[in-house]
Amino acid sequence: MSSFANLVVNEWFKLTKKRSFFVAFFIMLLMPLGIAFVMKNFMTDMELTQIGFLQSIIDFSGGGSVFVFLCMIYAASIVSGEHQLGTIKLLLIRAHSRSKILASKLVALLLFMLVLLLYSLLVGLLVYFIFFGFGNLDGSWFEVVKASAYTLVYTIVYLSIIFMLSILTKSTGATIGITFCIIFLEGVMTMLLSRYDFAKYVLFFNTNLQVYENGTPPMEGMSLGFSVAVIAIYLIAIVGIAFYVFKKRDVA
Amino acid sequence: MKVHEEDVVLRLQQVTKKAGKQVIVDQLSFDVRKGEIVGLLGPNGAGKTTTIRMIVGLIGMTGGDVLIKGHSIRSSFAKAISHVGAIVENPEFYPYMTGWDNLKQYQRMTIGITEERIKQVVEIVGLSEAMGKKVRSYSLGMRQRLGIAQALLHSPSILILDEPTNGLDPSGIREMRDYLKQIAQKEEIAILVSSHLLSEMEMMCSRVVVIQQGKFVHQQLIGAQQQGQEQTAANDIRIRVRELEKAEQVVRGLDGVQLVQLDTAASELEVSCNDEALALCVEELCRQQIGVYRIVEVKRSLEDEFLAWTGGSRIV
């Protein structure tokens, strides 16, 4: 186990020792500042609780989409970066199986996602206090937890897709390109396919768990449990393909 | 030369790689023993790099097996690879990390490497001064040395280097050669080097294995071992004399000495004979007062032999 922990430490350093590492944290500081600034100066009539503020930062259909994008960009290079640098050769000739090395990368990535999420919430809270004081404590913290969970589910789905693409294409640029295409097509596809019944088995119809909040499912026969199950099956398949390809690949 | 089974560090058994219908490496077998520096030679596209990548498990093999200290790279990868230190083509590192941080990466991947060991290895390759600098700022020569350092970290039994002198300038090549020889002694390990630079191999290796189109062609001992083996064999000798015609008559009259060619312009004759016959020949030339200016052994360079083995296929 400790040898696996060491591998994760290695991957963590590969992420954090890059100068670009702090860009994500910088952006996640700028965003709440911007939102707070606009709220304070132009939308003075709106009552803003800190819960509402944090939700707007982390909700993936709002400010949280920035969070999702940032995670995706960091994920895109985690395997392909090693190919592009050529370091993959020195990485794979150690006494560790390829699956273990790949798993350590996945764990480091999820760790990064969690750290960035916690950081964003903390920074959001601080920014709120600075702009609006400690006055408005209305609302349930559970709402923030739920918004975070929805965003995490959405992020994890995309991270696993990117993770797989990064392995398949061995190119960071191609990975990001294809992912953006998928994101773009996601909206179009949802629109075109929504009249067919099988659409409910398509991954992208299920990634937004928020829709179950107000009680009416997007399609007949869909429920929170159904969507979670569909997501789980897709995730297993996607990560499975990623591991299989990485294990079998000839590194030339 | 006596062969002790237990000295065999690396053994290739009928290693084969096919890509579609094309056979890249064809039933290649050879051994590398402790303390040896073995050169893997071959023209471009002979399958050197593919072979090395199969040895370290970077690419899978279609048939055969590679045993490292008796462990199969196919069925017990982790055990086998733990005895191997390698650089495959140019050593690539994380440019945004320092040399030290890069080595720490590889330290964390193997249990039991102390910081002292890192310092010791860095000392061997002479990089102590540069450890705090980002690898981005390293020259190619420095990266090569860092590459050797990472390969030595876990005290491997065999060092495998793919084209280690690629892209180095002459002084860098020489430095590399000295390091390798020194390491082979200090760390008592076997070294397998692939290259197409023949003169390089000649100076560095104790044995070369020549492959062509993925097939084993020839193997040859080099240097001291070679001489010891061939004391009774015939050598080519060039003799420069004052009177060529008389010398020619003398040589033709001697048993065991064969005239290979006559060079009137340089007033030299080339003979082929063993050591004893040469002594007689020189004695006879002196007695007849022909005037011997110089006697030189004609060494066929590895390049000539290589071209003979591979049928003159282009090297570069």
Automatic annotation (TrEMBL), chain A:
Keywords recorded for this protein, A-Z: Membrane, Transmembrane, Transmembrane helix
An annotated GO cellular component: plasma membrane
Keyword hit for Coiled coil: no
Example GO molecular function: ABC-type transporter activity
Listed transmembrane segments: 21-40, 60-81, 102-135, 147-168, 175-196, 224-246
Keyword Secreted found: no
Protein name listed in UniProt: ABC transporter permease
Automatic annotation (TrEMBL), chain B:
One Pfam assignment: ABC_tran
GO molecular function: ATP binding; ATP hydrolysis activity
Chain ranges of the ABC transporter domain: 10-238
Family annotation (SUPFAM superfamilies): P-loop containing nucleoside triphosphate hydrolases
InterPro entries linked to this entry: AAA+_ATPase, ABC_transporter-like_ATP-bd, ABC_transporter-like_CS, P-loop_NTPase
Protein's UniProt keywords contain Transport: yes
SMART domains: AAA
Keywords: ATP-binding, Nucleotide-binding, Transport
Superkingdom: Bacteria
Keyword ATP-binding applies: yes
Recorded family membership: Belongs to the ABC transporter superfamily.
Protein's name according to its UniProt entry: ABC transporter ATP-binding protein
Originating species: Paenibacillus montaniterrae
